[in-house]
Amino acid sequence: MCRRIFKSAGKDINIERKAFFGLGTGIVIGDYSGIGPNCHVPSDTVIGNYVMMAPNCYILNRNHRVDNLDTPMVMQGDTERKTTVIGDDVWIGRNVLMTPGRHISNGTIIAAGCVLCKDFPAYSIVGGNPSRLIKSRKPATE
Hints:
This protein is mainly beta. The protein has one domain: UDP N-Acetylglucosamine Acyltransferase, domain 1. Helix content is 3%, strand content 25%. The strands form 4 sheets. Strands 1-3-5-8-11 form a 5-stranded parallel sheet. A 5-stranded mixed sheet has the order 6-9-12-14-15, with no helix packed on it.
């Protein structure tokens, strides 16, 4: 069914129950990738090939404006929408929150419960709140 909704859908994709993707018309999802149960994926998200997304992940595409101290935050509106791009061969653990505009590099692992608030190099293992590099998956060079 998502093939009719998403902008592009690769082969052998898996969209789990209660995944929320709004209209979904701008979503691109690559081959052998999945969106886990209860995940929230905004319409302007790009998901590469071989991406595993565990349950309850939340991708934000905008935030509240807070820059005008003379106007209550609730009246300032939203920031511009930003696109999250997830590379190939990425594993996103359970309950990960991604702030707007993240670029997740190829081969990255994001630990469960992480608040991903910045970008990291390819083949990183990332975790924590705020997110930090735990280690690289690449072997150390001599």
